[in-house]
Amino acid sequence: MLGKGGKRKFDEHEDGLEGKVVSPTDGPSKVSYTLQRQTIFNISLMKLYNHRPLTEPSLQKTVLINNMLRRIQEELKQEGSLRPVFVTTSQPADPLGDNFREAQPAFSHLASQPLLPTDLVSTTPLESCLTPASLLEDDTFCTSPTVQHDGPTKPPPPALQPVKDSFSSALDEIEELCPAPTSAEAVAAETAAHDSKDHPSESNVQKPEGLPESRTAESKLMDSLPGNFEITTSTGFLTDLTLDDILFADIDTSMYDFDPCTSATGAASKMAPVSADELLKTLAPYSSQPVTPNQPFKMDLTELDHIMEVLVGS
Amino acid sequence: FLGAGGGNDIQWCFSQVKGAVDDDVAEADIISTVEFNHSGELLATGDKGGRVVIFQQEQENKTQSHSRGEYNVYSTFQSHEPEFDYLKSLEIEEKINKIRWLPQKNAAQFLLSTNDKTIKLWKISERDKRPEGYNLKEEDGRYRDPTTVTTLRVPVFRPMDLMVEASPRRIFANAHTYHINSISINSDYETYLSADDLRINLWHLEITDRSFNIVDIKPANMEELTEVITAAEFHPNSCNTFVYSSSKGTIRLCDMRASALCDRHSKLFEEPEDPSNRSFFSEIISSISDVKFSHSGRYMMTRDYLSVKIWDLNMENRPVETYQVHEYLRSKLCSLYENDCIFDKFECCWNGSDRQVIFNGTVTFFLPPLCSIVMTGSYNNFFRMFDRNTKRDITLEASRENNKPRTVLKPRKVCASGKRKKDEISVDSLDFNKKILHTAWHPKENIIAVATTNNLYIFQDKMN
Questions:
Q1: Where is region (Disordered) located (chain A) (predicted)?
Q2: Residue numbers of the domain that contains A46
């Protein structure tokens, strides 16, 4: 923070962030552009989701931060890092009428938003940001890109998915069935952003673990973006009752015991609860209601088995 | 001698400072708006605690021709109270966003003050006489026993200590879903506009139970919202014309004769982005925080995060002049985004409408308005002035240190990079908590009011 006349010291990871944006097609400066973009993205998320004012937050500020996030999202999308987003159902409109708290919106319009002019023309993958393909070919989704410990200058992988393996296509299927994003994703995003902010050099590890996981988390996090014009209550967008239900209620995770995964890497042990949450939501039936553990799963047991097989990689 | 000098012929001196000396700033004392009335005799401030403080200039002492009258407290009143919106479970801040004076029509003064949701018309009147000698009442107000009244007398007015009373005459409420950022009184002096993030309403000063919506940029689907209204102002001469600025750096001029709902602008002022300066923050720093017409109405001035732009109303595709307020911040935008300073809303103002010219000490001429100097605030309690004629600019500081009356203020300089010269301040030493957002220029004289966080500074030019 800037103090009262005291000399400010830049954090290490901010080196190269200030100043003009460099073209992302240059060699090493491509990395700093991505790093800068990622940092700004995280900061923007923090601003939107950490703000718990007693009064209504400024609409102008919210709109500007939102535009920033959308711009970055469009860039990432153009780089091929995000799949085209899917249409989600809307929650019922606010019966209270014309106020800040509008209906939870569908996400589809963002796919058609005009791309803001950027320097980014090339769609060739940014090799230095990619997780080595070998990691993606591992049989479990639990493997995290643990190789990237190179320090602050190494950028976190921005959720790239250049290789379409069997897992991701199965995940596609699941997600096509997925209901509207719930506030839990926002928490996952916030946690990710928070981690990234606190440990910039390790953000690539602590981001939603495993590339497929991070991809879905990030796309879901994007989903929740348009809805943040509703974030006006003092309790905040994140303190939905259902969120508490999901996070703290007893969840029967016996079906989702990934024995091979938990012993794979150290980071994987952290992933089990997250994956259970994710799975819980992705396996929710074709309803727009947030998932509660008490809801019976309408999905066929055979389908569940199929999914389990894919996930376990057998 | 004939003295109608430009901004840099003016030598600014410290005159007064109002407010607490403490470094610990009480939140309620944060000044949120500053405005001179049309004669310059009164200077109003609004604060975060919902209070309005009005200062009055002492009548000039003819023997003390070397200084103009001082400003002393004339009236203080609580304009707005905090409210609670039960539907949304949110507080409505009592902070005064804007004050606008009405031109004086009789002995009383009128001003409009607004918070986020409600506009109020206040009447400020003086009472310096009171009636005495009633037949049926004692002096303390108790009724006399009628049987004791034996003679009749006529009550007379006797002088009393001056009492200044403020009373709310109109309350214009419940017309804004979003936060009001601007109010502007029309040149017909009968109507005024109020603007929030998405809508602009037209009011009649006499009518409080309804207003006309003249601009509405709310999209049918709130998720498509990418632009908000940031400021609005009526044209000073043309009572059917007004402008409003946006968070994307555009200004729209609208004519109310064209249609009831002015959603289609008559003119759109926008400068194309400079590709060499493009960054992630281009949109945010282009957001306009203030718009002010010149007194003739031929030009308007806009303030965005880094610059002040002068526009000719006849040219829409670019401003005629651009002045950089603190270009050295361009390389710090990421940090300023992180600590929210990039969202600070700086205002700007023109120099006074009339230029008083003294000739031989006895004859006074008034030159037509020049609008040749613009003033705006910055960080570290610095404020800047730009002279449009000489193209020179100056940076001054509002600070209690080294400020003796009639001592000329020393110009400041910020060192952007490289070796810092003596007396220069490096960018990294700037205090971003000390921001000057609100400034005002006396309509007739070279007197300026500059608000730091919780203090009000008054500077005058050095009269010889």
A1: 1-29, 141-164, 182-215
A2: 28-77
Of B460, B268, B280, B295, which is closest to residue B371 (Cα–Cα)?
B295
- Residue A8: what pLDDT? 55
Can you give the three-state secondary structure of B95-163, one letter per residue? CCCEEEECCCCCCCEEEEEECCCCEEEEEEEEEEEEEECCCCECCCCCECCHHHCCCCCCCEEEEEEEE
Rounded distance, CA A235 to CA A51, Å? 10
Q: Which domain holds residue B115?
A: 37-134+156-174
Q: B186 pairs with which residues across the strands? A: none
Q: What's the token pair of residue A40?
A: 């700004």
- Burial annotation B398-425 (CB, 10 A radius, 16+ → b, else e): bbeeebeeeeebeebebbeeeebeeeeb
Question: Facing residues of B373 across strands?
Answer: B387
Q: Whole-number mean pLDDT of chain B?
A: 91
Cβ atoms < 10 Å from Cβ of A57: 20
Torsion of CA A174, A177, A183, A185, to 10 degrees: 20
Nearest CB to A109 within list B197, B223, B428: B223
Count of structural domains within chain A: 1
- Give contacts of A 178-197 with B, CB under 8 A: none
Q: Is residue A306 part of a domain?
A: no
Residue B346 falls inside a structural domain: no
Q: What local confidence, expressed as pLDDT, does residue A255 receive?
A: 57
- Domain assignment present for B51: yes
Query: Which of B280, B335, B340 is nearest residue A21 as measured by Cβ atoms?
Result: B280
Put simply, the answer to whether B283 touches A109 (Cβ < 8 Å) is no
Query: Could you give the CA distance from residue B328 to residue B424 in angstroms, rounded to a whole number?
Result: 13
ipTM for the whole predicted complex goes beyond 0.85? yes
Rounded to whole angstroms, the Cα distance separating A20 from B15 reads 42
Number of domains observed in the structure of chain B: 1
Strands of B315-377 (E only): list them.
321-324, 348-350, 355-359, 363-367, 373-377
Q: How far, CA to CA in Å, does A257 sit from each of A154, A198, A309, B270?
A: 34, 30, 12, 59
Query: Considering the domain boundaries, does residue A61 fall inside one?
Result: yes
pLDDT band at B383 (very low <50, low <70, confident <90, very high): very high
Taking an 8 Å cut-off on Cβ atoms, the answer to whether B90 and A105 are in contact is no
User: Looking at the domain assignment, is residue A283 inside a domain?
Assistant: no
- The answer to whether position A196 is within a domain reads no
CB contact under 8 A, A96 and B177: no
